[in-house]
Amino acid sequence: MTAAAIPYTPPLKEIRFVLDHLAGMAEVAALPGFEDASPDMVDSILGEAAKIAENVLAPLNRIGDVQGAKLGGDGVARTAEGWGTAWQALVEGGWNGLPFDPARGGMGLPNLLNTAVQEMWHSANMAFALCPMLTQGAVNAVQLYGSDALKDLYLPRMISGEWTGTMNITEPQAGSDLAATRSRAVPNGDHYLVTGQKIFITYGDHDLTENIVHLVLARLPDAPPGVKGISLFVVPKFLVNPDGSLGGRNQVKCVSLEHKLGIHGSPTAVLSFGDEGGATGFLVGEPNRGLEYMFTMMNHARLNVAMQGLSIAERAYQQALAYARDRVQGKPLGWSEGQSKGIVNHPDVRRLLMGMKARIEAMRGILYTAAAAVDVAHHHADEATRGRAALLVDLLTPIAKGWCTETGQQLASDGVQVHGGMGFIEETGAAQHQRDARITTIYEGTTAIQANDLINRKLLRDGGATANGLLDEIAALGGELSGHADEALRVTGAELTAAVHEARQAIAWVLAAAKQDPRLPAAASVTLLELMGVVAGGWQLARAAKVAAERLAEGDADTAFLSAKPLTARFYATHVLPKAAALRATVVNGSASVMALSEEQLFGAA
Amino acid sequence: MPILILADHDNASLKPATAHAVTAATKLGGDVHILVAGRNAAPAAEQAAKLAGVAKVLLADDAAYEHALAEPVAALLVSLASGYSHVLAAATSAGKNVLPRVAALLDVAMISDITAVVAADTFERPIYAGNAVATVQSTDPVKVITVRTTAFEAAPATGSATVESIAAVADPALSGFISAELSKSERPELTSARIVISGGRGMQSGDNFHLLEGIADKLGAAVGASRAAVDAGFVPNDYQVGQTGKIVAPDLYVAVGISGAIQHLAGMKDSKVIVAINKDEEAPIFQVADYGLVADLFKALPELQQAI
Amino acid sequence: MKILCAVKRVVDYNVKIRVKTDQSGVETSNVKFSMNPFDEIAVEEAVRLKEAGTATEIVVVSVGPTQAQETLRTALAMGADRAILVQTDVTTEPLAVAKVLKALVGKEAPGLVILGKQAIDDDCNQTGQMLAALLGWGQGTFASKVAPAGDAVAVTREIDGGLEVVSLKLPAVVTADLRLNEPRYASLPNIMKAKKKPLETVTPDSLGVDVTPRLKTVKVAEPAKRQAGIKVPDVATLVDKLKTEARVI
Ligand SMILES: Cc1cc2nc3c(=O)[nH]c(=O)nc-3n(C[C@H](O)[C@H](O)[C@H](O)COP(=O)(O)OP(=O)(O)OC[C@H]3O[C@@H](n4cnc5c(N)ncnc54)[C@H](O)[C@@H]3O)c2cc1C
Ligand SMILES: Cc1cc2nc3c(=O)[nH]c(=O)nc-3n(C[C@H](O)[C@H](O)[C@H](O)COP(=O)(O)OP(=O)(O)OC[C@H]3O[C@@H](n4cnc5c(N)ncnc54)[C@H](O)[C@@H]3O)c2cc1C
């Protein structure tokens, strides 16, 4: 059976708007080292990346889903038809190196720009885009913590994409709880011998490149227990000679590939290390600091997985929108001559589509704002500015990962709903988005783990100072818009102000409750995360609406596009922001009831 | 002043396209002359002389014109152009090759692919792949024009013009013909065919597609299919027209035994003329068809084969 | 051998264009523009000839508004060496473009000029032929293969009935058809390098060319809407309608 290609058109105009007006592309381009990121260069790069997304990656999305990745008799995982050529296109295009050090073959462009490119690639083909995403994460870790020798030997080819990278954390007994990591590494001359089993390793084996560089968490013999005793190692699939040529096969074996609900095109491997004594590994940085290093990769990956929530929603939205225009079912209420008779004009279908559109724009605002803050945190000349940006990134990361992936999933489901029965049928392609989206709330730390991070490390640690600082900024915007002449902006401002108030109350309650019973904030955590996501989304849409209104007032002729912004913001303000009150009520009134039943009652004989 | 049409021919015979250009020329007011530039091209000239509305055929018979190379043919046309108000050709690959060269040598603008004559100096032509129609007016002394053949009827072969031989002009000798590879009998490719005739589940079997193929060969059409027909194994999957198959926009699309699901329509709804043959008068395909025939295809197709 | 390529900035082929309500043209504000797809093929062919060692330098030219610089940058990113923008806000007709190109050919002395066979906005299919005429050069239009050898180039042309091969004396003009090649994606390093490649801006005036349109556009209208369909009673009526009314068979 030939798999059908469902088109994807990169939303370049939306992307450009968010880059310029919400994320501050110009300010990022003004940071030292980013001189090349001029507006016309950004256009050229996005334009070309869009072509690749649309014409190279998107057509392979369905093929990957249908054919999946398969383990060959030789123990090598095979990707779907056409994937090798597509990877080659990325390598030849130098796309993998976009954000990296020019001294090692990268392009030295901002993370913000990379984010926009990644959005398109994830929309086009999420299962495929995981490979460049993880490779970039691995480059980051080696770049930041690896010895010069490691960097010299591995980085150029990882940056070019000739070799890919993986993240080997999870073990059968160690998923959310990394303290349970058991893989071992024993010193052996200039290297270590690594043994153990890792599971769920994305692109843990494949046929796209001649070598794979695994970044592996393992314990040294004398390591302290828990997360403070984990070290990070580079374990290549093929050993690398000092001249960079490939040596012998290392003891890393792909034991099997998982059969999954979604992202079929992405091989998810069980890897066995050191079956015949020990795989050759090289320590990254200092012993016992592996988790800390891995978090560098993970923070990068968490924002990227958050991006997958946006990307998959965008793809599902485009498909739903096209279907809603074509599908006719009865005459829509209030239909008038000249209007399309498509279901798009049934108010409830429109509600679904508006819900998708508004949330997508909200997510894009959050993620690009965070991406710009990453650039500022790394590159700004002023230390205090860097510090503030880093705090914003830290706060936004769990919110973005949790909220954007949960929202992405919901929107993929809404996309199916717009299709009616056809949505449930695989050939339509809407169902694939929903299946693919399902993993995003799980890997790179489940939503619960994000929520724990938000509460424990982002709220309790500084007594809510950073979060309340952000809420102050949002409240100021809400206040400003509440007095605006335009009705849509006024409503947006008022609802935003109210939602900020709810968020403050919820945070205050959590801070207080933490002193009584540590289980209370934990019970409230995911709800609070959702509340923060709802507010952050409203913040971004309000910013967009404000900019759009200003531009219109200045006489910008693009009225159709710009005047949609306040209207979209108002939709969000009246459909999503009111949920803040309910979420606050759940946090404040409902957290105690989460653990109210005893375990016996939960399991008890009914 | 008279109007000159460059004939499209292969020496042995005149291409039908020229007859359409003649019809466009007759709307311009003025005697219509046809230039046949070729080698041993008298047979083509004879056919040109028979086209109704043609006053005179000029035959330039010379080795230089055997393969209708643009450089010598344009030089010849330019030498004649001063006696004409318009120089026309059908918008075939030959006409499109030569006429812009003529226009440039005459230092006049050229008007490609006209679909209507509004006045002797004003014409309609499609732009943006037919998504808009421009009306343009020329003030140049000679109007150089190619004609979209589908927009004008063919002039009938009821005339009897005289054929006058004219001398060749100097060949600029810039180019030479090496070879040609003409695909004669094979059916055209689905996406570029001018006519597509597709069968659906109603065809009942792969064998029955012969009913379509006979008609296709007569019309120079490509054969397509609905997904149901492909899924049922009647025809290979590269026949599939629709959302998940090929997108076609021919001048004529004939859907036979196809219900008209939106996924199928997505692949053919931009066709210029749509014909549907279906025994179910409620079939949605009729909502997009310009001409709908409610009939049993097994009866209608043989009749159609006869009638065309 | 130096190759000159002409590239045009046009409304992207994916854009569903709309006619302006005053019928003065089509809506071009806020729509996506890109390089005319046939021109992309022309540039690709030039780059391949350079990679094969046949060409030594590729100069790309665009006649159009300031924004056509983006189009030129795209060509530079694909592998062209140098760009010339002939800046004008006039809607240029093929004859004017051919004259501009002729003037530049006079300065640059290329051995081969490659253009797209037509621009997908005005759908004229004229410029290459006109340029060849003005230069007194041979032309190989609708090319699906270009093979330079010595002082000639063999061009395989897509013609209505199939393929034809002609040989042209060099220098010559070639216009690219869709099957000539599949244009590459510009690589990121090349996109960045393109910014540093020379892009010179001149005006038609400075080349001594008058680009005032010769044709007057009286109006631009929507094509006729699909007429409500009819049911025909029998095959004979159907065939008759197709022949006389629709004129498609
Ligand atoms: C397709 C796929 C690809 C993956 N790719 C990789 C990869 O490349 N590299 C890699 O190392 N790993 C990878 N993983 C593993 C992934 O990161 C883990 O599955 C994930 O972290 C969850 O761990 P777990 O599966 O053990 O679930 P568990 O930790 O067992 O979680 C089960 C449930 O318990 C909850 N839970 C657990 N602990 C807590 C807590 N402290 N507080 C509140 N709730 C809690 C979770 O939220 C979840 O609902 C991948 C997984 C999949 C399915
Ligand atoms: C995701 C998806 C993608 C799809 N993509 C495509 C696609 O690309 N292309 C496509 O075509 N379909 C596609 N489909 C399938 C589409 O929905 C329809 O199922 C299909 O087009 C039906 O084909 P049909 O009209 O031949 O069959 P039917 O719907 O079964 O119609 C057969 C028709 O033949 C008529 N008929 C039967 N016998 C005769 C007779 N003796 N004389 C005259 N008429 C007769 C019947 O009245 C009926 O109208 C897709 C479906 C899905 C879910």
TrEMBL record, chain A:
This is Acyl-CoA dehydrogenase. Its cofactor is FAD. Residues 86-162 form the Acyl-CoA dehydrogenase/oxidase N-terminal domain. Keywords: FAD, Flavoprotein, Oxidoreductase. Residues 288-457 form the Acyl-CoA dehydrogenase/oxidase C-terminal domain. Belongs to the acyl-CoA dehydrogenase family. InterPro entries: Acyl-CoA_dh-like_C_dom (IPR025878), Acyl-CoA_Oxase/DH_mid-dom (IPR006091), Acyl-CoA_Oxase/DH_mid-dom_sf (IPR046373), AcylCo_DH-like_C (IPR036250), AcylCo_DH/oxidase_C (IPR009075), AcylCoA_DH/ox_N (IPR013786), AcylCoA_DH/ox_N_sf (IPR037069), AcylCoA_DH/oxidase_NM_dom_sf (IPR009100). Residues 486-597 form the Acetyl-CoA dehydrogenase-like C-terminal domain. Residues 167-274 form the Acyl-CoA oxidase/dehydrogenase middle domain.
UniProtKB/TrEMBL annotation, chain B:
Keywords: Electron transport, FAD, Flavoprotein, Transport. SUPFAM superfamilies: Adenine nucleotide alpha hydrolases-like, DHS-like NAD/FAD-binding domain. The keyword DNA-binding does not apply. It holds the Pfam family ETF_alpha. InterPro entries: DHS-like_NAD/FAD-binding_dom, ETF_a/b_N, ETF_a/FixB, ETF_alpha_N, ETF_asu_C, ETF_asu_C_CS, Rossmann-like_a/b/a_fold. Residues 3-181 form the Electron transfer flavoprotein alpha/beta-subunit N-terminal domain. Belongs to the ETF alpha-subunit/FixB family. PANTHER family: ELECTRON TRANSFER FLAVOPROTEIN ALPHA (PTHR43153), ELECTRON TRANSFER FLAVOPROTEIN SUBUNIT ALPHA, MITOCHONDRIAL (PTHR43153:SF1). This is Electron transfer flavoprotein subunit alpha/FixB family protein. It comes from Azospirillum melinis.
UniProtKB/TrEMBL annotation, chain C:
CDD domains: ETF_beta. Residues 23-211 form the Electron transfer flavoprotein alpha/beta-subunit N-terminal domain. InterPro entries: ET-Flavoprotein_bsu_CS (IPR000049), ETF_a/b_N (IPR014730), ETF_b (IPR012255), ETF_beta_N (IPR033948), Rossmann-like_a/b/a_fold (IPR014729). The keyword DNA damage does not apply. Coiled coil: none annotated. Keywords: Electron transport, Transport. Belongs to the ETF beta-subunit/FixA family. This is Electron transfer flavoprotein subunit beta. It comes from Azospirillum melinis.
